């Protein structure tokens, strides 16, 4: 799409124009993109509670091992996806990848229904690892596609609204899971209670709806059916890794992602310890987590609706990229001094809400100036393997630091400072007129 329209050509008369600075000709693509992300996240949040329950079926101490297994599967999945991307155009490999995952969901549905004991802990752990891979891949491909359809000017204006579609899908997915599982929805008693396996099938249906959005966007933008076009990925299977090794820009994105994930996992581990100490019963702990999730969603929606595009358009990417590291520097410092639930709740709500609303859209804008190999080969590797690598390190590091008598809080503060430096450098580099270090 072109961004040649001037700000004066925005269409405030329409409802959409009142919510986002949308130019004439952008509305259909914007709504389809939001619906696409809505369907992806709704399907995932239908499955997420099932994954979490299966992950702790034999105790929470098994989670580091499950994260290790996820990292190994990521190592195998990335070359397979790169091979698919190398042979097919976007309008074919994106639906094909999603439908492959959809068939996986149908297979899990059958296994949960037919195997004794619903497959037991082995199938549960398999599903946990599979869903951890699935979520990162489908979201990474989504944002890569968005980086193809919209230019940088459009991304600054529109990505916040598109991200809001995912937030609404996540909220509705979580609500549907709870309601369908309990046999009640919107205050009405349902004649049935959905089993976990039934939710898997519903998630597959929403994934197919996401595929239909992809096909509609491909038709709207007249994407070709042949591989090797100017905007299609090339044939090199290892091209994504080669580009990372040669590009300072991509290396900084890798470092930014790794530090984000490391600090996220550190905070997740601290959250478990603080909540367990502050609340005695399981129901009280669940209520505490629910309060945090509620305010995270409120902050995310309000920010995406009214602030995201304005913050990025007005201040640029550099201040936005360092916002979360600065918040983490202050938050981890406060938690180190005052490890209370009140401090934890404020820190978690601000960090998670601003990540979903501001940091994630800004991070995706970084890929817009890059080529198709970087978007569909380098980006999935960063979004999946590097991300899960941070999970792996963050899950095992606290035990090692405790053994070495090193305060986890001090390390978290230090990592936040390094993250700030990385975001500052990345923002400075992406602000140049050309990415001179690109191969």
What does this structure look like?
By secondary structure, this protein is mainly α. It has 15 helices and two strands. A two-stranded antiparallel ribbon has the order 1-2. The longest helix has 32 residues, at 372-403.
- How many beta-strand runs? 2
List the total number of helices. 15
What class do helices, strands and sheet pairing give?
mainly alpha
Q: Largest beta sheet, briefly?
A: 2 strands, antiparallel
Please, how many domains? 1
**Proportion of helical residues:** over 70%
List the main descriptive attributes of the protein structure presented here.
439 residues; mainly alpha; Growth Hormone, Chain: A; two-stranded antiparallel ribbon; 15 helices; disordered N terminus; disordered C terminus
What's this entry about, in short?
By secondary structure, the protein is mainly α. The protein has 15 helices and 2 strands. α3 packs across α5, α6 packs across α13 and α8 packs across α9.
Give the topology.
Blueprint: H1 15-19, H2 27-55, H3 63-87, H4 90-114, H5 120-149, H6 152-182, E1 184-185, E2 188-189, H7 196-220, H8 239-246, H9 248-278, H10 282-306, H11 308-315, H12 317-337, H13 341-365, H14 372-403, H15 408-430
Antiparallel strand pairs: 1-2
Helix pairs in contact: 2-5, 2-6, 2-7, 3-5, 3-14, 4-5, 4-7, 5-14, 6-10, 6-11, 6-13, 8-9, 8-14, 9-13, 9-14, 9-15, 10-13, 11-12, 11-13, 12-13, 12-15
């Amino acid at each position: 799409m072109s961004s040649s329209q001037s700000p004066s050509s925005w269409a405030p008369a329409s409802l959409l124009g009142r919510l986002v600075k949308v130019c004439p000709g952008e509305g259909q693509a914007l709504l389809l993109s939001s619906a696409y992300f809505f369907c992806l996240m709704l399907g995932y949040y239908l499955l997420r509670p099932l994954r979490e329950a299966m992950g702790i079926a034999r105790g929470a101490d098994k989670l580091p091992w499950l994260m290790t297994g996820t990292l190994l599967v990521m190592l195998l999945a990335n070359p397979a996806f790169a091979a698919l991307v190398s042979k097919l155009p976007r309008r074919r490999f994106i639906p094909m990848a999603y439908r492959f995952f959809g068939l996986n969901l149908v297979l899990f549905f059958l296994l949960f229904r037919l195997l004794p004991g619903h497959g037991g802990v082995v199938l549960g752990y398999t599903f946990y690892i599979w869903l951890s891979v699935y979520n990162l891949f489908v979201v990474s491909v989504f944002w890569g596609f968005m980086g193809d359809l919209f230019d940088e000017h459009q991304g600054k204006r529109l990505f916040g609204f598109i991200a809001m579609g995912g937030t609404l899908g996540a909220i509705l997915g979580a609500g549907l899971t709870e309601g369908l599982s309990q046999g009640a929805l919107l205050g009405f008693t349902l004649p049935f209670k959905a089993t976990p396996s039934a939710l898997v099938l519903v998630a597959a249906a929403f994934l197919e709806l996401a595929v239909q959005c992809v096909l509609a966007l491909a038709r709207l933008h007249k994407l070709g059916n042949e591989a090797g076009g100017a905007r299609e990925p090339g044939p090199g299977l290892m091209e994504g890794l080669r580009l990372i090794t040669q590009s300072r820009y991509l290396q900084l994105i890798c470092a930014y992602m790794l530090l984000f994930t490391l600090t996220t996992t550190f905070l997740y581990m601290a959250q478990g310890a603080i909540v367990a100490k502050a609340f005695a019963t399981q129901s009280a702990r669940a209520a505490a987590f629910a309060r945090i999730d509620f305010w995270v969603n409120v902050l995310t929606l309000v920010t995406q609706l009214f602030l995201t595009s304005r913050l990025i358009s007005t201040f640029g990417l550099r201040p936005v990229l360092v916002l979360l590291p600065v918040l983490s520097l202050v938050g981890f410092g406060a938690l180190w001094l005052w490890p209370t639930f009140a401090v934890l709740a404020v820190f978690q709500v601000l960090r998670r809400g601003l990540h979903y609303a501001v940091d994630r859209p800004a991070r995706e804008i970084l890929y817009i100036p890059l080529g198709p190999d970087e978007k569909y080969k380098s980006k999935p590797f960063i979004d999946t393997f590097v991300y899960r690598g941070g999970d792996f390190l963050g899950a095992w590091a606290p035990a090692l630091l405790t053994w070495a008598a090193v305060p986890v809080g001090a390390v978290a503060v230090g990592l936040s400072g390094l993250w700030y430096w990385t975001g500052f450098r990345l923002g400075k580099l992406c602000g140049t007129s050309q990415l001179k270090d690109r191969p």
